[in-house]
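Bench log. Compound arrived from synthesis this morning; before running ITC I wanted a structural hypothesis for how farnesyl diphosphate sits in the protein. Inputs:
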Amino acid sequence: MKELLQALTPGERDWRIAAQLDPKRLPAHIAIIMDGNGRWARQRNLPRIMGHKAGVTAVRTTVETCAQLGLEALTLYAFSVENWKRPRHEIEGLWRLLRFYLRNELSNLMRNDIQLVAVGRLESLPDLVQRELQSVMDKTAANRGMRLNLAINYGGRTELIDAVNALLENARLEGNLDALEVTEEGISNHLYTTGLKDPDLLIRTSGEMRLSNFLLWQIAYAELYVTDTLWPDFKRTDLLEAIFDFQNRERRFGGLTLGGILPGESATCLVDEEVLELPLA
Ligand code: FPP
C-alpha cells in the first residue's frame, strides 16, 4: 500500500482514491474475469486480436498495482477450457500474446518480487507455450511478494474433477481407498490454488453477470464486483474503485455480525460521496 502511494503523485486522482483505502482491510486475493476484449475491438472496427493485445496493457497495470498494494495473490482468467471453441487464428493469436507478455514481463515480475504460477490443464497447451510458462515459473519461484496466478486452459469444474481424482489416487497409493472420506479441507488442498487464501473479491469487466466456470469452489464467499468497463479500458482507477467498493461491503460469511463499518454509517453513500465526486484526472 505504501509502495503504491509512493509511486503516485500526491493529489492526483488515483492517489486520492488510494489514500482513502484502509490498508488493514485490503483484499488478500483478487480474482478477475477479464472480459470485453472482442467488443472493444469491434467498437473500433479492429480484428478481435487487437482487443486482446490492448488487454495485455490492462494486465500489466493491474498486476503492478496489486503488487504495489501488497496483495497476497491475484488470479487472472486468461483462457478457459471453453475458449478452444474460438476460431483457430484467435487462439493462436492468444498464445502469441501470452508468449510476448511472458518474455517482456519477466523483468517487471522480478522487480516487483512477483511469483508467477500458471493454473489449469497446462499439458494441453502448445509445447512452446508450456516451455515459456515453465521458464518464467522457475525464474520467479523464489519471489516472495505477490503470487500471480494465470488461469490458462482453466475450468472450475475440471479443477474440481482433478482435485477429486488426485484425492482418490493418493488414497489408492496409500492403500486406504476404502477409508477415504472426502472433506472440504481435502478438496481445498488438492485445488490448483492450494495454500492460497480464497479470493475476497471477484471482479468481472464488460457488465456480464456470469461466473463462467471460474474458481467455482474458491469464490464461495467472495464479494462480486461487475463493471461495464471493457477489459482493455480497465485502468488503475477502476481497480482502486473496485477495492474501495469492496471495503464498504458488509461481509458476513453467513453470520450476523460485522466489523469495520462504523455504526450508523452508510457504506453506499460513502462510495457515492467520496469516489464519484473526485475530479477527473
Ligand atoms: C475475454 O474477452 C478475454 C479472453 C478470452 C482472453 C483474455 C486475454 C488477455 C487479456 C490477453 C492475454 C493475457 C495475458 C495474461 C497476457 P472476449 O474475447 O470474450 O471479449 P468479448 O466478450 O467482448 O467478445
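What the model suggests: The pocket of farnesyl diphosphate is lined by residues 34-39, 52, 55-56, 59, 76, 78, 83, 97-98, 101, 150, 206, 231 (CB under 6 Å). The longest helix spans residues 88-111.
ITC booked for Thursday regardless.
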